[in-house]
Amino acid sequence: MSAQLEYVRQLEEKITTTKTTLEKLKAERQATLLAAQHEEIENLEKYLDQANVDMQGLSAAAGDAWEELKEALEKLMSDISSRLKRLSGD
User: Fold this and answer.
1) How many CA atoms lie within 13 A of 28 on its CB side?
2) DSSP secondary structure letters along 24-40
3) Angstrom distance (rounded) from CA 45 to CA 79
């Protein structure tokens, strides 16, 4: 086999190996992204549950406590909205 043909064969082998490695990395990345999305969704559900509990306390709160709870709820809902937008790709 000529040196040129041997070189081409080796290069083809390297390209094939590299493609296989890239496909494996792409699949791993996709799995990691899915796991992260599921975790973020679970976190958002917890935050939303907390907002619901805080909202129930808001109706019973008075004076300064009402204002503090209102501010905390507004921040929590803003955070939830931002994270939801980021999660959905907006």
Assistant:
1) 6
2) HHHHHHHHHHHHHHHHH
3) 12
- pLDDT truncated to tens, each residue of the chain (90 aa)? 699 999 999 999 999 999 999 999 999 999 999 999 999 999 999 988 888 888 888 777 778 888 888 888 888 889 888 988 888 876
To the question of pTM greater than 0.70 for the whole model, the response is: no
9-20 b/e (C-beta count within 10 Å ≥ 16 → b): eeeeeeeeeeee
In this structure, are residues 51 and 80 in contact, taking their beta carbons and an 8 Å threshold? yes
Q: For 60-77, give the DSSP string.
A: H--HHHHHHHHHHHHHHH
